[in-house]
Amino acid sequence: SLKEAVGRIDNNIKLLSEKVDSLADKIENVKLELDDKLNNVTTRVDSMNNTIIDHNEQLAFHSDLIKNQKLLCDLIIVGVPQMPSENLFDVFKKISAAIGYPENNLPPVYLNRISTKSNGRSSKVFSLIKLQFMCQDAKTEYFGRYLSSKSLCMQHLGLPTNERIYINENLTPWNRNIKSRALRLKKAGKIKNVWSKDGLIFIESYGLDGGNGDKIAIHHN
Fold it and tell me: DSSP letters of 127-157?
């Protein structure tokens, strides 16, 4: 009869609907399982990337330490303009006299001009004087005398200007970048002091009362 036929159709529709629902549940379960596996893979890939980044940073750091060892006997003089037919040893003698060295007791040193670009967006090229001492102790003493003088300027070279002359350690690119960033933090008032020692960069934080704080060696940017 028609009623029985309609009943069979309804029953078939229900069975089909149940199969569709069951299939949809299976698809959803598969989707959830795939999402879970994808998340696990993504987590593992991210972990591997972080591990690779850490290894690369460690490799770069240790490579920089090796480079730094080659610069431990070097100092850089900044602020002395290059003159035609200049005598670098005469410049060295006058600077040495200004920081307390008698002319008959100058440390043995190799002198040469080097050029470097300024940090940041500027493309300005600076001509610097590099001092290469025979040993690290001689360099350390020379640098210490300069730091104690605090008044080295162009007048010490016989020039009619009081523009400052600076002496810095010869830093690797890694440590120059760290020092540059630290100096910006100092300028912003976030740290108290920045300096280098044996090619490494140190900072001093502010204490609770604004006085002296912790002194920390910085190895990473």
Answer: EEEEEEESSHHHHHHHHHHHHHH---BGGGG
